[in-house]
Amino acid sequence: YGNLLIGQSGGATAVINASLVGVVQAAMEDKRVNGIYGMHYGIEGFFKEDLIDLRQQPTSLWSQLLYTPSAALGSCRYKLQLDDPQRAIALLRRYNIRYFLYIGGNDSADTAHRLAQAAQQASYELYTISIPKTIDNDLPFTDHCPGYGSAARFIALATMDSTMNTISIPAHYPVKIIETMGRDAGWLAAASALGKRDELDAPHCILIPEQAFNADRFLTQVEEVYRRIGYVIVVAAETVRDEQGRALGAAGQVGMDAFHHPLVNGAAQALVELVKQQLKLRARFDKPGDLQRMASYAISMTDRDEAYLVGRMATLAVLNGENDKMVTLVRHNEAGYHCTTGLVDLAQIANVQRLLPDEFLQEHKTMVTQAFYDYALPLIGEPLSHYARLAMTRLNK
What we know:
The protein has 12 helices and 13 strands. The protein starts with a strand and ends in a 21-residue tail after the last helix. By secondary structure, the chain is of the alpha/beta class. The strands form 3 sheets. Strands 3-2-1-4-5-12-13 form a 7-stranded mixed beta sheet, with helices on both faces. The chain has 2 domains: 2-146 and 298-348, Rossmann fold; 151-296 and 355-380, Rossmann fold (3-Layer(aba) Sandwich).
């Protein structure tokens, strides 16, 4: 018996609040949970003792939050300092927190793991669970991450829509570069192909961080597609690197975040300049930015339901005595797609990335395979609508 503390961390998503709702509703159903507190702005807010009483919210709020993007509690990007775990234990004791749940990605899993270890060393009874959330889809030991399905749906739709503009007037800007998020993994960039039906459809080239960028190969591919169909759509992850390991956007690096991840201006501008200078073709770029995280109109219902599920199962896990674990999604394809949940030790998760595997990439590494479609299409919810094309039946001159 004791109080439960829940927080949201890292980049918010369109469905992270569904995980919060799952946690809270499961906690409210169990008499072993007394207070249910939310950290305002994650662990950083906890250190300031900025806590929100989640039992005092109107009942109608929770169903509304299921459809609300961003992090309702507020988020943070705070890396624990050397003495922070001890500070945290003192505060956990003060507020009689016995259940600690943290929604986030790799870095948030590290925070949860360090607090679980600190509690064990201090002989303080605390049950800690990390709840997966990242549009980057780069957490290991889970089939996929809540947040990815909705962001993938957005990227697929954005690629289709941006391409329609290029097709309408290809002579104006025949080359379009679309830049996606994803940190060191190409999962989001790969999702741009989910609306592709044939070689005319975009993208024509996908650039991911896992594959070293070679300028000559890239320019040859762009030129070949341009000569064949008259326009080229390239989708590039923001952290594409050259063969020396340097991010194409590194020249515009703007610093590091709290976890020492480089903040770069992205690859799109560098690629546009390369095409203009070497191929003498007009080029431009689109950068959806935070829209790919937050687009409520692109929420995948599958993604939202699974985000709720992992939150709910996290509460059940701590109440069953599980500790220092992360909830995982386990795929079952026997009778159509569905997922159940599992648990994995946080020691195996924290600061580990799962990259896009080779089996999801064609031989030239700039387009996805059928295996990727089989993997990703169930995650984005309703099938994508395909746009109509006129039959170019011309009059005889």
